[in-house]
Write a structure and sequence with these properties.
Layout: E1 2-4, H1 7-19, E2 24-29, H2 35-47, E3 50-55, H3 75-85, E4 89-91, H4 95-98, H5 116-120, H6 124-139, E5 143-147, H7 151-164, E6 169-173, H8 193-199, H9 201-214, H10 221-232, E7 238-247, E8 261-269, E9 272-280
Parallel strand pairs: 1-4, 2-3, 2-5, 3-4, 5-6
Antiparallel strand pairs: 7-8, 8-9
EC number: 6.3.2.1
Binding site for beta-alanine: 61
Enzyme class: ligase
Length: 287
């Protein structure tokens, strides 16, 4: 595995692969890797000849009162995990490399960024769309891999790629969970044992709602969301940011319970904000 810190070196290193028509897979991350990230690499290894991973904590997607400085970092550990997983090129630029001067250009995706995390974190998806566009321009991958734990982010990136004619295939990958059901996240390290235990209500309530939908026990999506809220509120440390049930991937209000649905939650346990979701497909595909 080759560690690269500059845009020019990465472009140069990948040139021969493009000349040889090798398929390039890309896994963008903010580091502090866990098995969720590694699962994306594994999928990329199955489908591509070359795998590039980026580790960059993007300041544009953090608000003024969010945890940019607190976000966990351990590059030496990340290098070992990436190398073991089979990453060919690890791109680790610093902020000045990605943003050498004040940016006057931003990428903004409308409508689907106005719900869920977009509503509670204004400007977050502008930062995500901008940095992912820059990374796509630098890496020029054939396929890019994103985890569905942040299903809204996947929808935003898919829409951006479609609208801007970016020649990359977005590959959504299923959520990877700890053995107790908690969705893997770099932020899980901040949870106390009690917070971790109470946070299990997220996956439990989402799965219960999905099961009840399959059994036709809800009459509206409002009932779905209210059920999940009631379950989460049984945990004393849980502070709900949002719970919503929306069409996926449009994130519009559903017309019926037979639409493809995303049940999504964001909940704080202490200072740690966790997101989770479940997708309910009605076209014989499950996530």
């Amino acid at each position: 595995m080759k560690v690269i810190t500059t845009k020019s070196e990465l472009r140069s290193s990948l040139q021969s692969s493009r000349t040889d028509r090798k398929r390039i897979g890309f896994v963008p991350t903010m580091g502090y890797l866990h098995e969720g990230h590694i699962s994306l690499v594994k999928q990329a290894k199955l489908e591509c000849d070359i795998v590039v991973m980026s580790i960059f904590v993007n300041p544009l997607q953090f608000g003024p009162n969010e945890d940019l400085n607190r976000y966990p970092r351990d590059f030496e550990r990340d290098c070992e995990l990436a190398k073991k997983a089979g990453v060919d090129y690890l791109f680790h630029p610093d902020v000045s490399e990605m943003y050498p001067s004040q940016s006057l250009t931003y990428v903004r995706v409308g409508q689907i960024t106005e719900k869920l995390c977009g509503a509670s974190r204004p400007g977050h998806f502008d930062g995500v769309a901008t940095v992912v566009t820059k990374l796509f321009q630098i890496v020029q991958p054939d396929r890019a891999y994103f985890g569905l734990k942040d299903a809204q982010q996947v929808a935003v990136i898919e829409q951006m790629v479609l609208d801007l004619d970016i020649p990359v295939t977005i590959v959504p990958c299923e959520i990877v969970r700890e053995s107790d059901g908690l969705a893997l996240s770099s932020r899980n390290v901040f949870l106390t044992p009690e917070q971790h235990q109470q946070a299990l209500i997220l996956s439990k309530s989402l799965q219960m709602a999905k099961d009840k939908l399959a059994s036709h026990l809800f009459e509206s999506t409002d009932q779905v969301s209210q059920f999940v809220i009631q379950q989460i509120q049984t945990q004393s440390l849980a502070e709900i940011d949002y719970v919503d049930t929306l069409q996926y991937p449009s994130l519009e209000s559903p017309n019926s319970l037979t639409d493809d649905l995303l049940i999504a939650v964001a909940v704080r346990f202490g200072s740690t904000r966790l997101i989770d979701n479940v997708l309910v497909r009605h076209n014989n595909k499950e996530c």
